TrEMBL record:
InterPro entries: 4Fe4S_Fe-S-bd, 4Fe4S_Fe_S_CS, Helical_ferredxn. It comes from the Bacteria. Residues 9-38 form the 4Fe-4S ferredoxin-type domain. It comes from Paeniroseomonas aquatica. The lineage of its organism: Bacteria, Pseudomonadati, Pseudomonadota, Alphaproteobacteria, Acetobacterales. This is 4Fe-4S dicluster domain-containing protein.
Amino acid sequence: MSLAGHIRAESARLAALCTGCGGCVTACPMAPYAAGVEAAGPAAVAAGMLDVLRDGAGTPAALAWIAACTRSGICTPACPEGLDAAFMLRLAQWRAKGALGTPPLIPVREDTQYSPKVKAFARLTLTEEEQSRWL
Ligand code: SF4
């Protein structure tokens, strides 16, 4: 299955299981820093996140929450349904950044120096033999 197919399949699977209770939003340490989340309320923000997973445009508060995610993972143990809420957020963030070919719904920051930085860090941690194989 392609990555896009995997994103679609997992989005549909998790969106079907999610009740939209908003427990993940309530637990999220970044929620207070995302514009409009507090005013919208956790259930409405979760509903907007589900809309993104279902090919929708979400809501401003849900998009702010999706964009603010720092992958703390605190949302996952907070889910009463036992869902991997952190993965749902990751799927929503990929989608909102245009991973499926649609225009981005949230700002996308590109680091053109990403690969050189990874290589520079790897040179500090890998043996010369590993470097010759992988870099
Ligand atoms: S992922 Fe879990 S905690 Fe978050 S809205 Fe869905 S059911 Fe509730």
